[in-house]
Design a protein that fits this description.
single chain, about 150 residues, mainly alpha, Rossmann fold, 2 domains, 7 helices
Length: about 150
């Protein structure tokens, strides 16, 4: 087979290592690596796979790999969510799973309301009344109260 492919043994080992590494990551990475290797003449592909060396396939598979790789990773220690309906969004759920400090949307909403009240009236805002009213309004939409912290 080495005579047919005409790739030196050391180069073939490096190519197989790169392809194996990419295959361990995911399909998009594998397609991108195979496409790039073929595009730059390092790996001849059989006729049925030559479409992998086209730029549209290389760009799309690379973009999908990057998107999938970073989709569930939150690159921050503190997460501020602005959405309060539902009370626990996918962002908040993932952040908690990753051990991040989370300020949920309802807390952000209440703090904005408290500050606005205090600016406009010059008085201390009834924080607990505001929170109770918000929770009651949200529970009317079928949302349960947030878990206690």
């Amino acid at each position: 087979m080495l005579d047919i492919v005409k790739i030196p043994q050391a180069e073939l080992f490096a190519l197989l290592a790169a392809i194996g590494f990419a295959a361990g990551l995911n399909l998009y990475a594998t397609v991108a690596v195979l496409g790039l290797l073929a595009r730059f003449g390092h790996l001849p592909l059989p006729p049925g796979l030559q479409l992998l060396e086209g730029w549209p396939v290389i760009v799309a598979s690379t973009a999908l790999f990057v998107l999938e790789f970073f989709a569930d990773k939150i690159p921050a220690d503190i997460v501020f969510d602005m959405v309060y309906n539902p009370l626990e969004t996918v962002l908040v759920k993932h952040a908690k799973e990753q051990g991040k400090t989370v300020v949920p949307g309802l807390d952000m909403f209440i703090e904005q309301a408290v500050r606005q009240f205090e600016i406009w009236t010059g008085e201390t805002a009834p924080r607990s009344v505001m929170q109770k009213a918000a929770l009651e309004a949200l529970s009317g939409n079928g949302h349960a109260a947030p878990p206690s912290r």
